[in-house]
Amino acid sequence: MNTLKNGDVSEPIQTPFGWHLIQVQDRRTEESPMERNRFAARQALRDRKGDEAYQEWLQQLRDRTYVELKLDET
Fold this sequence. Notes:
Largest sheet: 2 strands, antiparallel
Radius of gyration: 29 Å
């Protein structure tokens, strides 16, 4: 598979699962570690901001909530 060029089809290959033909349609280049780290940092910031917004929303709900307990003394 690694020796095939885009659009090439391999010779038949036998595996324990049967016979296969491999066609290379396109190749992907792996992201550089810097790009991967940048993506991970963005995701972490997005997660943190989302959690902060959620916690702030919960606090606002708690601040607006009024609960009155009436104990029935018999």
